[in-house]
Amino acid sequence: MAFIVFIICLVWFFLMYRAYGSFLSRRVFKLDDSRKTPAHIFCDNTDYVPSNRWVVWGHNFTSIAGLGPIVGPAIGVIWGWVPALLWITLGTVFFGGVHDFASLVISIRNKGLSIGEITTKVIGKRAKYLFMSIIFLELWVVIAIFAMIMGVLFKMYPTSVFPIWMEIPIAITLSYMVFRKGKSLELWSWIALVAMYATVAIGVLVPIGIPGPNAVIIWIIILMIYAYIASTLPVETLLQPRDYINSHELLVAALMIFAGAVAAFIRDPGHLGFVAPAFNFSARGAPPVWPFLFVTIACGAISGFHSLVASGTASKQIDREGDAKLVGYGGMIAEGVLAALVVLAVAAGFGANGKGLADGIAAWSEHYADWSSASGMAANIKAFVTGASNMMSYIFGNSRYIRELMMTIMGVFIVSFAGTTIDTAARTQRYIVQEFGRSVGWRFLTGKHIATLVAVGSAFGLAMVKPGGQGALILWPLFGTINQLLAGLTLVVVTIYLTFKRAKPWVAAIPTGFLVVMTGWAMVMNVQQYYRTHNWLLVGVGSVVFLLMCWLVFEAVTVLVRFRKNPPMLD
Q1: How far apart are CA 452 and CA 447, in angstroms?
Q2: What is d(CA 389, CA 423) in angstroms, rounded to the nearest whole number?
Q3: What share of the chain is helix, strand, coil (3-state, %, to 5)?
Q4: Cα–Cα dist 332/304, whole Å
Q5: For 10-65, what is each residue's pLDDT tens digit?
Q6: CB within 8 A of 519, min separation 6: which ones?
Q7: Cα–Cα distance, 311 to 316 (Å, whole number)
């Protein structure tokens, strides 16, 4: 049953990429390869670099994925696997795909500017500063929290440390051989993939850990230094090739999970039945499914962070406009597939342990006994790793070394996503700081090294506010809602843009209305909860963000009314 449902999801995503993706390309955005992209117009071989579409797809996919499509669906199945999969399949196609595709195309047609800067053209200067404040807040938390998560994951999976850090010399070698020496991208992609999986096998034998109670803090410091260096290097040197080879490594891992599911289904269809309930709206301690499902499962359906990647880094690397369909819409479709695979792993993988459905149902019920036990980051990573490893054991066996190897592959799978997100978030935050510096006339902020220092240094400061580098956890409870509010506000900008261009604005307007209502509703409920628990910091931050959202929506409506007959000129 679970395997068949997943196959249906795959067919749906494939058909919608061909049908709805093509509709958006031809009828809405009217992609034109004769237009010069910012990568050609402003080519500087640092940030603006025309690149192979599959290389840019790899960068975009691994950057937007992060841990979101793993953790979100792993939590969301507490309400049942049916609501989780419905939101993932519909949200990816009609919400997230439109959001990512539109953010990328609009940025390409406006000099590769960020979505915050584009807001100036579409809505106005006041709206830009409001939008950029929310963007800075989101990226500030992302860099700090993902650095902490990577530190924790290195501690949880010391066998992943060696392969993760070996990705850097492998990526630099690929960059040198392909971009400098002109060697075959296909050949060196295979060489890099084999080399990376060889390091995974070695990592099982040579786990690397930092002793002592401050291991996570030491990792955070190392990762912040790395983020500074990586985000100031030319994209071709490290960011782009690392994300590209990571995409191959991660796709192979996903294929192994899928192959394990096939093997389990062939051996005995009962071994891969759903152990999670189809619907579970009375889970102990869980918030109501409306509106919190749409905030909890973000990256697997729609995420505001994606617009920052699309308009921050990806738009500066697109070679031809036609590549935007694969990179923008195709990247989101790939993330939807990953999110559906995670649902399969956590909703059915618990039962793929050879002990039968009854044992799997008991294991699932224990893990998802209540909201507090199911919603923790570590708990959901463990749920995914356990489910995925159970399924892969049907192919590779269940010996001690093989089990450790499978756990390491999953550890590398997860840590690699987190690492690429830090890379891209730090570079994108640098762009935001530079754009702010240009807007207010602070020239010292326009230099890449000072701007990067502000981006990375402020995130490090946030991480260090609490012991163990856990400072970002102070704001983390609001992150999901802020992220989805950002997605809703991005869609507001897209709706206005398409309205002015008379290009079927309903494709964005319908998702906009739904998402703004759902996330605004969730933010109000969150603030009420924080008020009852006397968490005044989150009451204040949540209230300010909600008011900023209301202000931006008001500004947008005002602009639509003012220019409905004579819209401003937009690219």
Answers
A1: 8
A2: 28
A3: 80, 0, 20
A4: 12
A5: 999 999 999 999 999 999 999 999 999 999 999 988 889 999 999 999 989 988 88
A6: 291, 294, 295, 481, 484, 485, 487, 488
A7: 8
- DSSP string computed for 465-496: TSGGG-GGGGTHHHHHHHHHHHHHHHHHHHHH
Handedness of CA 297, 300, 303, 308 (dihedral sign): positive
Instruction: For the domain covering 2-562, report its CATH number.
Output: 1.20.1740.10
Residue 291, preceding peptide bond in cis (omega within 30° of 0): yes
* Pair 453, 471: CB distance under 8 Å: no
DSSP state of 505: T
> Which residue type sits at 278?
A
- The three-point CA angle 353-357-360 to 5° equals 55
pLDDT of residue 26: 94
Q: From the centroid of its chain, how far is CA 509? A: 23
Start-to-end Cα distance in the chain: 48
Integer CA distances (angstroms), 551 to 88, 165, 306, 441, in order: 29, 44, 22, 25
What gap in Å lies between CA 496 and CA 425, rounded to an integer?
26
Asked if 39 contacts 48 with a C-beta cutoff of 8 angstroms, the reply is: yes
pLDDT for 555 equals: 82
Query: Which residues share a beta bridge with 426?
Result: none
Q: From CA 422, how far away is CA 165, in angstroms rounded?
A: 14
User: What length does the chain have?
Assistant: 571
pLDDT in tens, 353-411: 555 666 767 777 777 877 877 666 666 777 777 778 777 888 887 777 787 888 888 88
Contact in structure between 291 and 379 (CB atoms under 8 Å):
no
Nearest to 256 by CA among 402, 406, 420: 406
Residue 351, pLDDT score: 60
DSSP notation for 203-221: HHHS-----STTHHHHHHH
- Alpha carbon of residue 470 to chain centroid: 21
| CA max distance for the chain | 70
